[in-house]
UniProtKB/TrEMBL annotation:
Its main location: cytoplasm. Its EC number is 2.3.2.13. Residues 1-13 have a biased composition (Basic and acidic residues). Its cofactor is Ca(2+). This is Coagulation factor XIII A chain. One of its GO terms (cellular component) is extracellular region.
Amino acid sequence: IRMTETTDKEKKPPLNGRRALPLNNSNDEENEVPEMEAFGLIPRGFNPKDYLRVVDIHMFKEPHEINKQQHHTDKYYNPKLIIRRGQSFQIQIDFNRPYKPETDQFWLEYLIGRYPQQNKGTYIPILVREVLKPGEWGAKITHKENNSIRLSIMSSATCIIGKFRLYVAVWTPFGILRTHRNSATDTYILFNPWCQQDAVYLDDESEREEYVLNDVGIVFHGNINDIKLRSWSYGQFEENILDACLFLMDKAELELSGRGNPIKICRVASAVINSRDDNGVIAGSWDNTYTYGVPPSAWTGSVDILLEYYSSKQPVRYGQCWVFAGVFNTFLRCLGIPARLITNYSSAHDNNANLQLDFFLDDEGKVDTKLTKDSVWNYHCWNEAWMTRPDLPVGFGGWQVVDGTPQETSDGMYRCGPASVQAIKHGHVCFQFDAPFVYAEVNSDIVYLRREKNGTQVIENIDTNHIGQLIVTKEVGRDGMMEITEEYKFQEGSEEERLALETAVMYGVKKQTLQDTSYQPQADVDMEFHAQKAVLGSDFKVTITFRNKSGNSYTATTYLSGNIVFYTGVTKNEFKKHSFSAKLEPYSSSTYDVVIKSSEYLSDLLDQASFHFFVTARINETGKILAIQKATVLEIPALRIKTQGEMVAGKEMSVTVEFTNPLKQTLENVTLRLEGPGVLRTMKKEFRQIPTNSTLIWEVKCIPIRPGLRKLIASLNCDALRHVYGELNVQIQKP
């Protein structure tokens, strides 16, 4: 027993100064759960056998049994119970004697990952109730017979996706008795497109059959004048594929608590499907040399790729766009997110997102490959995943573009999406993620330029119809081709198309206006936005400045929207709305201040204190719109670390941590942590309260072990304030 204890200690990941618990981003790791959790001293006569005891648990997990049938999971080649969230399932518990509800008390516990916490959804206690509420965790007894009870269990419609461990806990006066760890009762919980409360709910049964349950599909390739098709085996139900797909989220280090959110899952998966920057699943190669690997065209499906990656943990060589898309489709369908593979013929790869592919011609009219950086792909495959978008305004849910092919970086990684197809069609490319890039893929113009000897560029030709001529996917329930071009764009040359383009341009898609006089911005008025630097907890002001460079008087109806955003840019809510009318006198500047009070933002503030402001102004006289957006982050106050006395290895030294509360409220239940590898073991201290403006001082004595340059790291955490850190480099002398 001693042995196992020490190895367990070594396996614990190191804590860091940012969080009380290490990241919980592995579905594979487990914690140990005590079978007897005593409330105090156990009296000598206590015998667990006197109490209600679980003899057996029946999961009804065979493919032909009720659970897998009702949950559409009977195809998975996996012996364990697989259910979909937000829908009830049945289990049976056999006790050592009949269950007496008056005196016996038991509950179920579902756990996932290594550090289960109830508020993160990784530890789920389920109590027995009279009624089940739809889409919320609960259990009710449907049948009692002899020593057995039948339970109907409802899972939450927002539950984490992954593999949970099940325990049954029985209450006794002296402690809690639990069943021991039994992997046979492990339960996989997946997305549920059949459940109205699930973010991936899809209302058409034939579409669910195709986009979730069909494990083969068709890839359209070739080019616009010569469309070719091939089948692809998705194999989402094959042995070990579900585990391999869950492993991808571990590999992407997606925190378990984020795994109920299809937006987050798609975003991280689009990065981990390719091997660029994260050693993901498939290494791409477009140069026709496939040494030491399988040529992309040789793959017939996703299963071999996923299984090889799952066992070797190394990128599988090689893939091109349809391989990335095929594997991504398997991943999405396997987890229960409706998904389809899309082909865009004549797809623009626009390096600088200016909605324009610049092709430079030499004197003979040939394309100069040295100067030409943009490219048109004969076809490009990506995926669409179906989900609601609560992070966007109403109307942008439904199909979302996700793309695992490494083309351009997004937020510093090779990934793309999810981007709302509806937003792309209407030009609302301000909405995350990567909508401008996808918009350019289907809407760019090709501009042919010739360089004169003196260096000027002459436009020879503009082709507005070449890009994104045809966008297709497999038909539902049949193997034919379904055109979905009109989901992405209005009729070429129509009034709506023009409007969508203007909207996209307004929202920041760069378009060089060449011979294009129909789009004329309000050139004689500039609008600027500035946010005052502010410390968390204080009021601050934002300033909107107009500069009227013309001789005309204008009035501008101005609207300011302040949003609290996650540091990823996902909007949590709008906390400030302010509109006013601005008078713009000729040849002059006018400035308008808006005060943001701490009381307006503190209650909803997210832990990284990020805001996003959006300002739009309509010049009433011309109808033109000015728009500007700015993200701003509040300064989070730091901890101060000091040392006293000499710092010598083997000798006691003293470290103090200080912090002054900047908020207009008392901080409650504050946890401080201090660690310094080689100087002191991680230490923790709880403070009940820190009143406003008061300073906390924590002194710690320690004996440094290793000489040299070391780092002390401290963190402070409480509900009202997170991400408070301090650090100090210390030089420990040799004794």
